[in-house]
Amino acid sequence: MLSVEIQHTLEDFTLDIAFDVGNEVLTLFGPSGAGKSMAVRCIAGLMRPDAGSILHNGTAWLDRAARINLRPQARRVGLVFQDYALFPHLTVEQNISFGLAGLSSEERRGIVSSLMEEMHIRGLEGRYPDELSGGQQQRVALARALAPSPAVLLLDEPFSAVDVTVRTRLLRLVADVQRRRGRPTVFITHDLEDAFLLSDRIAVIERGRILRVGAAAEVFAAPGSHAAARILGTRNVFNSVVIDRAGEGPKAVLRLRSEGGLELSAFGDYALGAAVSIAVRPALIDIVSSEGGVRSRAGAVTELVPALLTGVESRGDRYTLRARVANSLSHGGEVDADMVEVDLSAAAFERRAPRLGEAVRLAIPRDAIHLFSNH
Amino acid sequence: MDLFPVLLSLRVSALATLYSVAIGLPLAWVFAFRRFPGRSILDAVITLPVVLPPSVLGYYLLLLIGRRGLIGSPLESWFGVRLVFTWHAAVIAAVIAALPLFVRSARAAFEQVDESFLGAARTLGRGELVIFFRILLPLAWRGVLAGVVLCWARALGEFGATLLVAGNIPGRTQTMAIAIYDAVQAQDTARADTLVAILTVTSIAVILTMNYLGRGSVRQRQVRRNRPVPERGHS
Q1: How far is A212 from chain B (nearest CA, A)?
Q2: What is the rounded CA–CA span in Å between residue A319 and residue A328?
Q3: B54 phi and psi, to 5 degrees?
Q4: Which end of chain B is more exposed for a tag (fewer CB within 10 A), N or C?
């Protein structure tokens, strides 16, 4: 268990974060300059924050108040840099065994060869880093970081420089390693798919602050704030007002109306007249023809919203439809009608065969509607 | 022709270079990576000989190692060792004059090594001495070697301070640079020409070596080129 709590102030920027990492992958997700790399460098001991503490299984690696600051050498951290930082003058084998001090050469060879096997880089022992492809360099960097059996693994955007197919394979490799020998792992990325593939939990960071932390799927479904929704690239976020309310507590049924005319009911605990944001993931929305009956999932209440199909885009394995919500308010042209995005799999797209300009109804399961308060 | 000045100059400059590297490497490391109070003052003191007139430098050295000097006087009364007007004084003068050139070059070379290599080595648990010899020095060797060559060239040509502390004693302290002065005074043009030719050829060789070293290692360049653009801002 790694407990991090650090504050650091630069001229125009303040890092102020706190999080715990168990035997899991915690992703620090956020835009460039959010302070993710700075956090990782503090954990590794390559940078000393103004204030805070870093505890590993109760041992203080850093405690500014108690004037404890272990050297990076004493922290047992495996760090994979964004640019790999492989020693250019050492061979692959020498790179990987660099961290294996105090072992017999036989033991060293054993560890190196089993790691190379695991990383699928056998046969590259005598090569120099500049003789390797990006993906191979990445594997060597990972092997080098793992060789001394670190207590904590830190991955600082390690996959940003390799292409998509290589990246996916590497992510699976890391996930495998993690499954076999779990250790607190902090993974930095600004790529959503990477984050989803590898994370157990995600912390959304912006300008030095954690906006939201939680299980990956949960954070994506419910970003919790406009800022987090923006960083996560959440589509279908609408400002609305509670216009009716039935029941009590978090399971109260609210009637919401957005500025752009979207009107639907959802569960939530907000007062009448409260300004609330509606977020619906595009993949959870289905379309039904305006005459057709409702084919809802068993037991789920489904909202049906009339809309006009105005756009279809192919995204390779899926399609994104854009539908303009039909409503009376925006008819005068004062406010643009809400545009709702719907993601359909290629198969669902073939079945529905939607046409541009077609009047449809958007089928939105009530429990897929996420609300958060507006600020 | 008397070869003594040539041999003495080679001996003095080689020893001065050796001492400068031994003293200069730790100094360059400290200046490149450590912040401490008095850092800029120490830096100024070490660099001073570059701008100080050689005769002024020689005068200060006399105050230090002269027979009544700060170090020279106890050295002579306790150990019976006299430094001034021996070739050892020439070595000392050459070190003082050449050291700053080596420290500057080595320090610049160290500062150019990407910090992430050193960071990676530290997280891999290795001590600073191992990192110095196995990572830093191999990655900075061109700049360090350029510093060695520059330092040696400066030591070889040292004149003013050497004349003051070691004198011009033929067969004992007369180095090449001083022998040229001596030959010109004695209107021995042939001797002056020979020595001037030797030093000129040496200097051209030094320049060519520096240019070659300055071109940078192919391997390091490629590693840099392959690197993705680092995250902007605070990372």
Answers
A1: 20
A2: 28
A3: -55, -35
A4: N
**Hey, are the CB atoms on A32 and B114 less than 8 Å from each other?**
no
Within this chain, do residues A266 and A190 fall inside the same structural domain, yes or no?
no
SS3 call for A155 = strand
What is the token pair recorded at A371?
């609300």
Give how many domains chain A has, as a whole number. Answer: 2
Inspect the interface and report whether the beta carbons of A33 and B119 lie closer than 8 Å.
Answer: no
Q: Which two tokens stand for residue A227?
A: 């800022």
- What is the sign of the dihedral through the CA atoms of B157, B159, B165 and B171? positive
Does B228 have pLDDT greater than 50? no
The reply to whether A31 and A111 lie within a common domain is: yes
Q: Which of A98, A131, A144, A149 to probe by mutation at the B interface, max B CB count within 10 Å?
A: A98
**Same domain assignment for residues A151 and A210:** yes
Range of the domain at A270: 234-373
Size of interface A-B (CB pairs under 8 A): 105
Closest CA to A202 of A12, A19, A29: A29
CA–CA distances in Å: residue A122 to residues A140, A147, A172: 10, 15, 18
> Per residue in A54-99, pLDDT tens?
999 999 999 999 999 999 999 999 999 988 999 999 999 999 999 9
CATH code at A297? 2.40.50.140
Shared domain check, A202 and A97 = yes
Go through A134-170 and write b for each residue having 16 or more CB atoms within 10 A of its CB, e for each that does not: bbbbbbbbbbbbbbbebbbbbbbbbbbbbeeebbeeb
B121 to chain A: which residues are within 8 Å by CB?
87, 98
Q: Which residues of A touch B216 (CB under 8 A)?
A: none
- ipTM of the prediction greater than 0.95, yes or no: no
A48 vs A56: CA distance, rounded Å: 16
pTM for the model stands at 0.81
Domain boundary among A187, A206, A230: A230
A9 backbone dihedrals φ, ψ, rounded to 5°: -115, 125
**Alpha-carbon distance A221 to A369, whole Å?**
9
Q: Is the pLDDT of residue B40 over 60?
A: yes
Paired with A308 in beta bridges are: A324, A359
Question: In CATH, what number is assigned to the domain containing residue A193?
Answer: 3.40.50.300
Residues A321, A183 share a domain: no
Is the same domain home to A196 and A47?
A: yes
Is residue A186 within 8 Å of A226, Cβ to Cβ?
Answer: no
* Domain identity same for A44 and A123: yes
**CB atoms inside a 10 Å sphere around CB B186:** 10
